[in-house]
Design brief:
There is one protein chain. The protein has 162 residues and is mostly beta strands. The chain contains no helices and 11 strands. The protein has strands at 3-9, 16-18, 27-34, 42-46, 54-60, 66-71, 86-93, 100-108, 119-127, 137-141, 155-161. A hairpin with a 6-residue loop joins strand 7 and strand 8. The protein is globular.
Length: 162
């Protein structure tokens, strides 16, 4: 069912990394591991759209829902807790004439060792574009956020299906 569309591992630190151009498919599955040197906010974006065209709803560690509207990302990490990096698994419906809907699960390593449990986020998001299919996926550090860059060895894998 799934066809691999991208498999990119970063070789240097940067403020963002990308899947590169992928074939447009009706359904997308994204897995990403983001290495961080310290806590800062990151987010999932599409087709290099860095404008406030995204919205999300999430629950972290089973807490009450929170939302973000007219924002720069649709799936993300707990910025104050993910200094050890995180793993994201996301599914996207990618219809050109509809808003792109995302459901994601994220597991974060806030500190090393067996004495600290990982954090979890369940989130839904959308990209409010109704004229294009997703043909590239970026993971970007929040503009102006301190704490260094996304680290070498981070990766993104994308599969698609019609």
């Amino acid at each position: 069912f799934w066809e691999e569309l991208a498999n990119v591992t970063t070789s240097s630190s940067a403020d963002f990394f990308s899947s590169g151009t992928i074939t447009a498919k009706k359904y997308l599955w994204v897995q990403a591991y983001v290495k961080q040197a310290s806590p800062y906010s990151t987010g999932l974006q599409f087709n290099s759209d860095t404008a406030n065209n995204y919205a999300f709803r999430y629950s972290g560690n089973g807490n009450s829902d929170a939302t973000g509207t007219s924002t720069w990302k649709c799936a993300f990490n707990y910025s104050s807790l993910a200094g050890g990096g995180y793993f994201m698994n996301a599914f996207i419906i990618n219809n050109a004439s509809k808003e792109k809907l995302v459901i994601a699960q994220t597991s974060e390593n806030s500190s090393t060792g067996a004495g600290t449990a990982p954090n979890r986020i369940e989130s839904t998001g959308k990209w409010a574009n109704t004229s294009d299919q997703i043909t590239s996926i970026q993971i970007r550090k929040e503009s102006g956020a301190g704490g260094g860059q996304l680290q070498s060895g981070s990766f993104i894998k994308v599969w698609g299906s019609n």
